[in-house]
């Protein structure tokens, strides 16, 4: 036994066991998040509950959101009448009823003893809307241009409504945005040159174009106002839902398994491709996906050359003295600084100092409204570049140290300068280590939220940092981020219970984005490693 301990085998097995447990824990956590998030898009069955609450009989229609076994003593302590309950425990159901404008709460809590009957609601429809969330009811008829039509024509009506909404959205995002941009340019030109006849004529022309677009949008909205869907809710009341607010409709209790899978896939596609609605509790997260990926790519473009140049100086040029040791200690200590401190630094230095100076020099016509002197995606990328800089420096320096000195000496002996040796021999061989540092930097930067709250991220960004207006890439704009979206939906939502599945879905999506970025970098690193392996040998 003593020889076995001396051989080190127990520690190898202990280490392997710890690594295995860590992997199992991480995979289990990812599976839990994925299950909780992706199951939200599955068409859950809708039930009709006949309940009797203190002699008041009523029908409730909704999805079973959560089932929990609670003790009778706990209910009694909460002030619930438990005289009719037999036994020590009872099931409590959390029912999602929707119909937000007609019911005070999205959820109703029912005890098992309060339910007299529970049946699947035949022909019940779930109606997804732009406002007020989902509506549960029985469609009765479809009104098109003031005429009542059969429900068989509802699908065509929804397609027409979607087409009209798309045209209105296109007019707002392209034509109206272009006119507003040109008017803003004319205002700046007027502040510089004064009121000139040419500027006034251009403004009048733009205002006439805007009036024409406005008339077109009003005509399109009138087309939508004439269409509606008549639905009977759970209380038997007829409700008129404007078709301009209806996005989709499905009958969950009538779908086959294949149809449910197809519906599940469509809902996931909408989640990753649409804009958010209802204070981020409905709709998709495409702006947050775009902002996260774009910010990480911009950060990578900034941090890689800075980290590589710093590592080259420390390893190839800096002397072995106390000053160099002090720099190395400072680099290592920077890796341990809390991220919120970087956010405060970015706000004070990049936003107020650098951005304010840029505004005074190049955008004085727009002051006091700031252009770069306000949080934006450029300052967010720079802040995270500084935050991840130590990782790239250390990884690159380790890669440079692994390159044999004979390679450098051979290049210098053949007449190459030190700069040529670095650029053509050393850096290509050290590129796998550089990519390793970049992978670690991306993994950390993509999940950071605290510093971004100070230097550019917002709850809702009206436009993306990229559009068809010159200069096409707008680094001064604020942006959305998946990490901040999780925080906002989970802790700042007006209806946390209803938005909880979106927290899981967005968390799983953020992990997927980070894994995708890392796998891309790992693939590039492995390719470079294979390419220069023969030189290292």
Key features?
MetI-like fold; globular; 16 helices; 58% helix; 15% strand; 537 residues; 5-stranded antiparallel β-sheet; cell membrane; 6-stranded antiparallel β-sheet; alpha+beta; 3 domains
What is the total tally of β strands?
13
In the CATH hierarchy, the architecture of the largest domain is Orthogonal Bundle
Low-confidence stretches: none
Instruction: Give the terminus-to-terminus CA distance.
Output: 41 Å
Report the biggest beta sheet as strand number plus sense, adding barrel if it closes. 6 strands, antiparallel
Count of spatially separate domains: 3
Radius of gyration: 31 Å
Oligomer: single chain
CATH topology of the largest domain: MetI-like fold
What is the H/E order?
A: HHEEHEEEEEEHHEEEHEEHHHHHHHHHH
Overall average pLDDT: 87
CATH class annotation of the largest domain:
Mainly Alpha
Q: Helix amount, in percent?
A: 55-70%
Q: How many helices?
A: 16
């Amino acid at each position: 036994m003593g020889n076995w301990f001396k051989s080190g085998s127990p520690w190898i097995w202990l280490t392997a066991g710890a690594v295995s447990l860590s992997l199992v824990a991480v995979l289990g956590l990812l599976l839990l998040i994925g299950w909780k998030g992706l199951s939200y898009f599955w068409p859950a069955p809708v039930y009709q509950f006949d309940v009797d609450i203190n002699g008041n009989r009523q029908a409730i229609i909704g999805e079973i959101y959560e089932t929990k076994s609670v003790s009778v003593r706990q209910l009694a302590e909460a002030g619930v009448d438990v005289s009719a309950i037999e036994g020590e425990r009872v099931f409590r159901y959390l029912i999602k009823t929707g119909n937000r404008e007609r019911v005070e709460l999205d959820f109703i809590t029912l005890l098992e003893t309060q339910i007299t009957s529970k049946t699947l609601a035949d022909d019940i429809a779930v109606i997804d809307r732009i406002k007020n969330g989902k509506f549960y009811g029985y469609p009765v008829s479809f009104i098109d241009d003031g005429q009542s039509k059969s429900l068989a024509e509802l699908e065509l009506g929804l397609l027409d409504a979607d087409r009209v909404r798309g045209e209105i959205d296109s007019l707002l995002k392209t034509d109206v945005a272009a006119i507003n941009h040109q008017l803003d340019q004319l205002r700046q030109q007027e502040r510089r040159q004064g009121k000139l006849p040419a500027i006034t004529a251009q403004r009048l022309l733009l205002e006439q174009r805007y009036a024409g677009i406005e008339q077109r949008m009003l005509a399109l909205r009138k087309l939508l106002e004439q269409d509606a869907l008549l639905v009977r809710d759970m209380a038997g009341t007829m409700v008129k839902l404007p078709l301009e607010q209806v996005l989709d409709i499905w009958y969950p209790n009538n779908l086959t398994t294949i149809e449910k899978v197809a519906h599940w896939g469509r809902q996931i596609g909408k989640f990753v491709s649409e804009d958010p609605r209802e204070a981020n509790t409905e709709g998709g997260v495409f702006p947050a996906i775009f902002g996260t990926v774009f910010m990480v790519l911009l950060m990578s473009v900034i941090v890689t050359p800075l980290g590589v140049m710093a590592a080259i100086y420390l390893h190839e040029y800096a002397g072995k003295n106390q000053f160099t040791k002090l720099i190395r200690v400072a680099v290592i200590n920077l890796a341990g600084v809390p991220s919120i401190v970087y956010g405060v630094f970015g706000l004070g230095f990049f936003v107020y100092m650098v951005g304010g100076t840029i505004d005074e020099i190049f955008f004085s016509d727009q002051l006091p409204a700031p252009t770069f002197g306000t949080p934006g995606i450029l300052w967010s990328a720079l802040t995270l570049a500084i935050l991840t800089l130590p990782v790239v420096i250390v990884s690159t320096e380790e890669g440079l140290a692994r390159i044999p000195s004979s390679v450098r000496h051979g290049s210098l002996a053949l007449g190459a300068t030190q700069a040529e040796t670095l650029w053509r021999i050393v850096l290509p061989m050290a590129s796998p280590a550089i990519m390793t540092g970049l992978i670690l930097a991306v993994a950390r930067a993509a999940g950071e939220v605290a510093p971004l709250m100070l230097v550019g991220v917002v709850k809702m960004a009206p436009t993306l940092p990229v559009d068809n207006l010159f200069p096409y890439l707008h680094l001064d704009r604020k942006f959305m981020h998946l990490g901040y979206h999780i925080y906002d939906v989970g802790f700042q939502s007006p209806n946390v219970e209803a938005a909880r599945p979106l927290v899981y879905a967005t968390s799983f999506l953020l992990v997927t984005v980070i894994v995708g970025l890392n796998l891309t970098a790992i693939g590039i690193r492995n390719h470079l490693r294979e390419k220069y392996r023969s030189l290292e040998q």
